[in-house]
Specification:
The chain is mainly alpha-helical and about 300 residues long. Helix content is about 70%, strand content about 0%.
Length: about 300
């Protein structure tokens, strides 16, 4: 195999090692994506069950122990369980990096390494949230970093499944109009995600009964958040029209998935709002935020790099 065919096949391990690594690297990358979406859910469970200070300090759980005492009850177990998942994320990221490197996929290895760096960053920010008694702005940063890591995982999968073809006759370069609209979709998506964290920080689910809130009007910011979602949906529909005209089947599929995700997320958002924010619906909405991050990233990477139509 000629390592110059793509920019991410530049390492040359032994053929047997490469064969095994090539079989493992995509499943591991999928596991990376699933795990990072999963920790958004478990982090949400910590907050929604009032377990945010179940371990009242960091990096230890208590002043004299790294594990929770029985006196901390179920809240201590929930918070400590979420901390343990950080190690699972680190192991999966490391395994993905090793597999990508052994398979000769240098660009994929770099992205897997970036995901791995996000794990200790998340741990530190999580610790700061505990040490600041769940300051809502730090909690929002904690969630936003998780959503960004989900996006990097999507980019990693795209690099592995659809490497650059380096001059293929079937390659498509998207028009400036497609790129501009897709960039607007990506920006609007992240504005909506950020405003969602602002709404959460002003709402009732603080993670602990004594934790501070932002002091902002939750009803007002719920309406601002909803308006940002309307803008996002409108831009995505425009992108759908342009993707259909472009002839790029992969881009059209990505935008179509994003439309479905946005409509489902919007429906769940309205249901939770008009039903008093039940924790089950809020948890589903949190997972939807992670899936939204994945979907807008998928659209972006398909539009901004040379693509081979499906």
């Amino acid at each position: 195999m000629n390592p110059s065919v793509t920019d991410d096949r530049v390492v040359a391990p032994a053929p047997r090692d490469r064969s095994l690594a090539e079989r493992l690297v995509v499943p591991l990358a999928v596991a990376n994506l699933v795990a990072n979406i999963g920790i958004v859910l478990t982090g949400g469970v910590v907050r929604l069950t009032g377990s945010g200070l179940g371990c009242p300090t960091w990096p230890r759980c208590t002043d004299d122990s790294y594990v929770p005492h029985g006196s901390l009850g179920i809240h201590g177990a929930i918070e400590f369980g979420n901390r343990l998942l950080t190690f699972a994320l680190a192991i999966i990221a490391l395994a993905t990096f090793v597999a990508a490197w052994r398979a000769g996929r240098a660009r994929a290895a770099r992205l897997a390494f970036l995901v791995g760096l996000g794990v200790p960053a998340q741990a530190v920010i999580g610790g700061i949230t505990v040490l600041t008694d769940l300051n809502p702005w730090i909690v929002a940063l904690h969630l936003l970093l998780s959503l960004a890591m989900v996006g990097v995982c999507v980019l990693l999968l795209d690099v592995l499944r659809h490497p650059l073809t380096g001059g293929s006759a079937t390659a498509v370069r998207h028009s400036p109009a497609v790129r501009r609209v897709v960039l607007a979709v990506f920006a609007a998506g992240w504005v909506a995600l950020y405003l969602g964290t602002v709404v959460t920080g002003s709402g009732p689910h603080a993670g602990d009964a004594d934790s501070p809130r932002t002091g902002l009007d939750p009803e007002l910011f719920s309406r601002i958040h909803a308006a940002s979602v309307y803008v996002l949906v409108g831009l995505t529909l425009a992108a759908l029209v342009l993707a259909r005209r472009s002839g790029d089947g992969l881009l059209l599929k990505a935008v179509g998935v994003l439309v479905v995700v946005e409509l489902a997320q919007g429906a769940i958002g309205y249901l939770q709002y008009f039903n008093g924010l039940p924790i089950v619906l809020v948890a589903i909405h949190l997972v939807g935020a992670a899936v939204t991050s994945a979907a807008v990233t998928w659209v972006l990477v398909r539009a901004l790099r040379r693509a081979v139509p499906a």
